[in-house]
Amino acid sequence: MPRTSTVECAGCPPIRALTFDVLGLVKVTEARSNEGGIPKVVDRWGEPDSSKCILAASIDDRKSGPLLAVARKDGLIEILNPLNGHPCLSISNIINGAPQAGDDAIVGLHLFKKQNLDLSSRSRTLLTCTTKGNASMSSFEVTSSHVDSTPKVSSRSWNVCPSGNILCSQVDGNENYALFGGKGVEVNVWDLEQATKIWTAKSPPKNSLGIFTPTWFTSATFLSKDDHRKFVAGTNSHQVRLYDISAQRRPVVSFDFRETPVKSVSEDRDGYTVYIGNGSGDLASVDMRTGKLLGCFLGKCSGSIRSIARHPELPVIASCGLDSYLRFWDIKTRKLLSVVFLKQPLTSVVFDSNFTAEEAPSSVVDPPSEAQNVNESQVSDDDEEGMQPLKRKKKSSKNSKGSKKLKSKKRSKRDKDETDDDVDDSG
User: Fold this and answer.
1) Cβ–Cβ contacts within 10 Å for residue 322, how many?
2) Environment class of residue 21 by beta-carbon count within 10 Å: exposed (0-12), middle (13-18) or buried (19+)?
3) Residues 239, 248: contact at Cβ < 8 Å?
């Protein structure tokens, strides 16, 4: 049985988050109250299918023409409308004219926000990277015509690593550079316009015992959206490293974080704070200028944290992972604002920064969330427990029947003894 505890949460500001899970479902969670709102699941897109597990997601949440891109386990990339979930087009993961094998899954996905607006069509660009290092930049048009129309996709591909497995990739804020890293692959930075490598990290030296730590990067992010020269990477050996490509090839700052692999890192808007989540559910914030731990977020997660998202405007971050919970945190107090149970293990979470409480229609009735279902089941259990006194009454009635039988037996025996005494007296 999982360990559960009652947690008092302060509630969330008006917020909208989209989560993605291992069954290929996209769930929309919204908090619609201006003060202390409780997030609820208001919509679900797709049908549960493990072969369509969502591995990566990227959103362009601008007010005019927002788009959402999701990469699935079967190699299909879907472009959706993040407001209603309607599909716009689908793109197959094709490199050099051939579809990719199942073991070469997509691990990196980025939907560029640069676009050329037109009255009839919108030209967009998508960057993908697979486990074997096959990177591709695809340009396509999302037209206002029917969805089933054949999309025109032009792409150029290159390989970012001759060996090893890519596990993480990230694009800088100006969308001109990208970094890649993984198991047996040192983090390297590429110029996306020229498709050329401009920098490669160097492995740290051996420790005092002469032990060399193998290269195994699990997550990475740029420290600032305006500077592509500094980025933070997490490793499988629970290390967090800060690189500066203008200074040196080895880490500028390096420290250990707990005892399990770092699974997710996310940057803050201030340009020096980073949020770290590991495989045992620990979530903390760190000042990367000094490597000092600012503090851990209050409230233990019961599973590996796979994704951390920072809200573009509000002082809120969201985390999700294998424990199937979506959690919202206050970055100032590091306290838990609210938690939503979403049934399936989660792979990623993104925010819709343009959502406001006024956008939600008052006539819409929210479907019961998973947390409400749990409460209802608990209420039903309590009702069943409330029936137990009736059972006790039955037991007491049985006991009373037994006592009545004993009394009747005693009475009959007493009458028999009296009759015997009368017989003796008559004799």
Assistant:
1) 19
2) buried
3) no
Q: What is the dihedral of CA 69, 73, 75, 78, to 10 degrees?
A: -20
Place of tokens 């590091």: 334
CA 60 to chain centre: 18
Residue 115 has phi, psi (to 5 degrees) of -155, 160
Which structure tokens are listed for 99? Answer: 């579809």
**Per-residue buried b or exposed e for 36-68, using 16+ beta carbons within 10 Å of the residue's own CB:** ebbbbbbbebbeeeeebbbbbbbbbbeeeebbb
Condensed to tens digits (0 to 9), the pLDDT of residues 305-355 reads 999 999 999 999 999 999 999 999 999 999 999 999 999 999 999 999 888
For the whole model, what pTM was predicted? 0.80
Amino acid at 58: S
Q: Is 396 helix (H, G, I), strand (E, B) or coil?
A: helix
Residues 186-203: b if buried by 16+ CB within 10 A, e if exposed: bbbbbebeeeeeebebee
- What is the length of the chain? 427
Q: What is the DSSP string of 68-119?
A: EEEEETTSEEEEE-TTT--EEEEEE-EETTEEPPTTS-EEEEEE----EE-S
Q: Which two tokens stand for residue 175?
A: 């969308």
Fill in the amino acid letter for 272. Y
What are the structure tokens assigned to 271, written together?
A: 């340009």
Task: Yes or no: say if 243 and 201 are a contact pair by the CB < 8 Å rule.
Answer: yes
Report the alpha-carbon distance of residue 122 to residue 64 in Å, rounded: 11
